[in-house]
Amino acid sequence: MDKTMRASHILVNSEVIANQVYDNASPLNFGNLAQAWSQCPSKARGGDLGDFGVGAMVKPFEEAVVATPIGSINRPIKTDFGWHVIYRTG
């Protein structure tokens, strides 16, 4: 079964910053926060990672996206890349 997802994220290097970003994030300002805070090149697109399928992202990130309802922002999660605040957009 091919399951395509879409998400934006903000990648930072500490849990403290991730929680501060999460506390201030909403669907309306997520792109602006990504441009201001994210350490990922996707920040230029407001954190948008585009469409991706199962297995395209590291496991903890993918699991968080799957568990997040479309239109919602998850609590920060940690991967080998750092701390992510994820906004599931599709």
Q: How would you summarize the topology of this molecule?
A:
Layout: E1 4-12, H1 15-24, H2 30-37, E2 48-53, H3 59-67, E3 77-79, E4 82-88
Antiparallel strand pairs: 1-2, 1-4, 3-4
What does this structure look like?
The protein is of the alpha+beta class. The chain has a single domain (about 5-90), classed as Chitinase A, domain 3, CATH 3.10.50.40. It is built from three helices and four strands. The protein has helices spanning about 15-25, 30-35, 60-65, and strands at about 5-10, 50-55, 75-80, 80-90. A four-stranded antiparallel sheet has the order 2-1-4-3, sandwiched between helices. Strand 3 and strand 4 (about 80-90) form a beta hairpin. The longest helix has 10 residues, at about 15-25. It is globular, with a radius of gyration of 12 Å. The chain starts with a strand and ends with a strand.
Q: What would the keywords be for this entry?
A:
90 residues; 30% helix; four-stranded antiparallel β-sheet; single chain; alpha+beta; Chitinase A, domain 3
The top level CATH class name: Alpha Beta
β-strand percent reads 25-35%
Count of helical regions: 3
The radius of gyration over CA amounts to 12 Å
CATH architecture: Roll
Strand order of the largest sheet: 2-1-4-3
Order of helices and strands: EHHEHEE
Ends distance: 17 Å
- Poorly predicted parts: none
Major sheet, described briefly?
Answer: 4 strands, antiparallel
Structural class: alpha+beta
The dominant shape is: globular
Tell me how many strands there are: 4
Give the overall pLDDT as a whole number: 96
Q: Look up the CATH topology.
A: Chitinase A, domain 3
Domain module count: 1
Into which percent range does the helicity of residues fall? 25-40%
